[in-house]
């Protein structure tokens, strides 16, 4: 089912004069195509959970509309929306068995929808089989592992066949290994059922790995919407660039001088490369309804202070490369090598670059020089953080 | 390990001494007294050992009356006070405005002196040459009969006692239940709401099971408290409870020791042992029941 969100805004009133109202979600506009898995991504307090709860109906929007398949559900109570919600802490009823937990939503049906005990049991078993917990039906939630509890919560949300499945931080209570497993599982369940699914996460890796579309939010404002790879390759602003990717993007303080990107004293990159790259890659990435680039022409560029963001994989080791960094250490990962280095213009702890294990770095030297890879370098305006040049 | 053990025992000695002197020794003593026929404090002598004391009190009409009174009091007050407290606590946790005011109002009886409460009940129920009491005035208003609640028929006196007990035990229960209700994770209610669960089903299937440990704690302590009922009866009917036919088991024990016909430690001990046996049985039954119906 298609979910449309129009100008969604949620303001929480402040507590008196000194505490102004909080805008949790500000003018959110988005359309989720039927059957997609969408990840709402952002740091904590960015309004992603608020958005989810508004779609669910537990919170009422201050302004804006929510439409399910064109039907306005903004004022419809949650139980009549046909949504399933998986809570962050699962909210499984501890005094009921797994089967009773899964059957609980069915027991609420009344009138002609009322099910017999046998029908309920078979529906519950069906849902349990889908998430592969049908052998644990008689257990109590506390006798299950975190991952199993998670599956029960999903089964309980799915049993009444919701039109939209909502998940609030579905993986945050699991350990790292289980998280990898479960996110694949969520993807599989979503594919099998074809239910439009929206999930909230603060973990960019999680969102990138399973979503069809990710929505990056900060401070209640949507920063960028797109396919995970597109958002990674074409961040609209510094926040999005910094939020996606592990290790994170390396941000330098720099400037634009006569058509060149300058970091420190050295000209490291040609602005023309930023634009040329945008041109060639244009067909590979179709921007999914996102706003067109606001990049200025290279010729206009004077001496403008900027942030230069370079992805860790955007560095080549080159003895004559323009960017010289002080070498701090090398972390061997097997397939590739992480080089840790320092630069006076760098913002943050240490520059982390990923290079091929065969690239032959000389660890005895105190300096490493890089050449930069087009398409992995982004220039952002210093004041607004907006991307300059080459936005697709 | 051995050394630690010795240390641990050393730390336990002070508490152990107090427990032994004030709890264990008296317990054993009570048991011994209850078996000794006509034990005399002054001469420290008895006429023999056996179950005579038990036989005597079980044939004593005052004791049987006390058992009947106590049992009625338990059966009536424990369920009513628990259910009422649950409803009030649920109401309190559902409202927002004036919640603190109501909480204070409902908690007031807890900090009020038993005898002061007794005085208020006198004004409500007692017949004097000048007035029939507020409740009777109310009954008159509806053209009801005049009833002497304090010196009148047995059922009237029992009713007053039960109302009194219920009223006095409720604040504590409300307090405990309100905090239990507040500690139920809001997410359970949200989950139920998303699934379209109706209010009554939420209460029965989610709220009640969630607070069931607290409810059973209150039921068990309520039973024990009601079996030990005494001071409330005194506040209402004076010290000569046998004459008023309103004596309780604890009252009977007291009368046997120090009351008008006092000086019978053997009978008192036998009654105390019987009370102990009754409370133990009821509590064990409660625990067995709760093990099956209380979660966590």
The largest chain-to-chain contact, stated as pair and per-chain residue counts, equals: A-B, 21 and 20 residues
In CATH, the topology of chain B is named: MetI-like fold
Per DSSP E runs of 2 or more residues, the count of β-strands of chain A stands at 21
- Helix run count of chain B: 14
Strand content of chain A: 25-35%
- Radius of gyration of chain A, in Å, reads 25 Å
**What structural class do helix, strand and pairing data of chain B support?**
mainly alpha
Q: CATH H level of chain B: which superfamily?
A: MetI-like
* Share of residues in strands of chain B: under 5%
CA radius of gyration of chain B is 24 Å
**What is the H level of CATH, i.e. the homologous superfamily of the largest domain in chain A?**
P-loop containing nucleotide triphosphate hydrolases
Low-confidence stretches of chain A: 277-299
Gross morphology of chain A is: elongated
Q: How does the major sheet of chain A shape up?
A: 6 strands, mixed
What pattern of helices and strands is seen along the backbone of chain A? Answer: EEEHEEEHHHEHEHEEHHEEEHEEEEEEEE
Structural class of chain A comes to alpha+beta
Structural commentary:
- The complex is a heterodimer of chains A (392) and B (296).
- Chain A is an alpha+beta fold and 392 residues long.
- Chain A has two domains: 3-233, P-loop containing nucleotide triphosphate hydrolases (Rossmann fold); 246-388, no CATH class.
- Chain A is built from nine helices and 21 strands.
- Chain A has helices at residues 48-56, 98-103, 117-130, 146-158, 176-193, 204-210, 228-233, 238-243, 271-281; strands spanning 3-12, 22-32, 37-41, 63-68, 71-72, 83-86, 164-168, 196-201, 213-218, 221-226, 250-257, 260-263, 266-270, 304-310, 315-317, 323-332, 336-342, 351-356, 367-372, 377-381, 387-388.
- In chain A, the strands form four sheets. In chain A, strands 6-7-8-3-9-10 form a six-stranded mixed sheet, with helices on both faces. A six-stranded antiparallel sheet of chain A has the order 13-12-11-14-20-21.
- In chain A, helix 3 (117-130) packs across helix 4 (146-158).
- Chain B is an all-alpha fold and 296 residues long.
- Chain B has a single domain (60-293), classed as MetI-like (MetI-like fold, Orthogonal Bundle).
- Chain B contains 14 helices and two strands; from the N terminus they run αββααααααααααααα.
- Chain B has a two-stranded antiparallel sheet.
- In chain B, helix 1 (2-35) packs across helix 14 (265-293) and helix 7 runs antiparallel to helix 10 (212-227).
- The mean pLDDT of chain B is 85.
- The chains are: A alpha+beta (392), B mainly alpha (296).
- The interface between A and B is medium-sized, with 21 and 20 residues.
């Amino acid at each position: 089912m298609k979910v449309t969100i129009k100008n969604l805004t949620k303001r929480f009133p402040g507590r008196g004069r000194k505490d102004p109202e909080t805008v949790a979600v500000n003018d959110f506009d988005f359309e989720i195509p039927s059957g997609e898995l969408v990840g709402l991504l952002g740091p904590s307090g960015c309004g992603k959970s608020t958005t989810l709860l508004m779609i669910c109906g537990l919170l009422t929007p201050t302004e804006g509309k929510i439409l399910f398949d064109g039907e306005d559900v903004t004022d419809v109570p949650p139980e009549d929306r046909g949504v399933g919600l998986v809570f962050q802490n699962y909210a499984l009823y501890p005094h009921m068995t797994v089967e009773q937990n899964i059957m609980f939503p069915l027991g609420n049906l009344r009138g002609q929808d009322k099910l017999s005990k046998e029908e309920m049991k078979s529906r519950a078993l069906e849902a349990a089989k889908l998430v592969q917990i049908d052998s644990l039906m008689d257990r109590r939630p506390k006798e299950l592992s975190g991952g199993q509890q998670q599956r029960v919560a999903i089964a309980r949300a799915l049993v009444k066949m919701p039109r939209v499945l909502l998940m609030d931080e579905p993986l945050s209570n699991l350990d790292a290994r289980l998280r990898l497993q479960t996110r694949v599982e969520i993807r599989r369940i979503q594919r099998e059922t074809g239910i439009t699914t929206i999930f909230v996460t603060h973990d960019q890796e999680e969102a990138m790995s399973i979503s069809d579309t990710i929505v990056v939010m900060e401070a209640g404002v949507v920063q960028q919407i797109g396919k995970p790879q597109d958002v990674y390759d074409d961040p609209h602003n510094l926040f999005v660039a910094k939020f996606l990717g592990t290790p994170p993007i390396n941000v330098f303080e720099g400037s634009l001088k006569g058509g060149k990107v300058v970091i420190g004293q050295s000209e490291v990159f040609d602005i023309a490369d930023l634009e040329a790259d945008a041109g060639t890659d244009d067909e590979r990435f179709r921007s999914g309804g996102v706003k067109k680039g606001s990049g200025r022409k290279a010729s206009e560029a004077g001496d403008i202070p900027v942030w230069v963001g370079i992805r860790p994989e955007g560095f080549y080791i080159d003895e004559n490369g323009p960017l010289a960094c002080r070498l701090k250490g090398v972390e061997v990962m097997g397939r590739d090598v992480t080089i840790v280095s320092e630069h006076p213009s760098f913002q943050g702890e240490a520059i982390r670059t990923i290079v091929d294990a065969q690239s032959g770095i000389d660890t005895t030297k105190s300096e490493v020089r890089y050449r930069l890879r087009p398409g992995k370098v982004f220039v952002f305006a210093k004041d607004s953080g907006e991307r300059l040049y080459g936005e697709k | 390990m051995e050394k630690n053990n010795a240390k641990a025992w050393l730390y336990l000695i002070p508490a152990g001494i107090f427990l032994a002197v004030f709890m264990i020794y008296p317990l054993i003593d009570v048991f011994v007294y209850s078996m000794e026929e006509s034990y005399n404090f002054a001469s420290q002598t008895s006429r023999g050992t056996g179950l005579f004391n038990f036989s005597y009190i079980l044939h004593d009409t005052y004791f049987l009356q006390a058992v009947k009174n106590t049992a009625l009091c338990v059966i009536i007050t424990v369920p009513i006070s628990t259910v009422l407290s649950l409803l009030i606590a649920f109401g309190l946790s559902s409202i927002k405005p004036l919640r603190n005011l109501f909480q204070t109002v409902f908690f007031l009886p807890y900090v009020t002196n038993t005898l002061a409460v007794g005085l208020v009940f006198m004004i409500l129920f007692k017949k004097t040459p000048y007035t029939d009491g507020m409740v009777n005035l109310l009954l008159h208003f509806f053209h009801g009969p005049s009833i002497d609640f304090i010196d009148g028929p047995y059922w009237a006196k029992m009713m007053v006692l039960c109302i009194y007990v219920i009223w006095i035990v409720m604040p504590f229960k409300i307090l405990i239940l309100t905090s239990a209700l507040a500690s139920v994770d809001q997410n359970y209610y949200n989950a139920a709401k998303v699934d379209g669960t109706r209010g009554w089903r939420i209460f029965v299937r989610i709220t009640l099971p969630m607070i069931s440990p607290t409810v059973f704690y209150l039921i068990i302590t309520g039973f024990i408290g009601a079996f030990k009922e005494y001071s409330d009866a005194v506040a209402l009917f004076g010290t000569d409870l046998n004459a008023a036919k309103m004596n309780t088991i604890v009252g009977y024990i007291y009368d046997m020791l120090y009351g008008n016909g006092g000086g019978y430690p053997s009978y008192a001990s036998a009654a105390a042992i019987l009370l102990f046996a009754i409370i133990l049985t009821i509590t064990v039954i409660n625990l067995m029941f709760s093990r099956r119906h209380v979660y966590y």
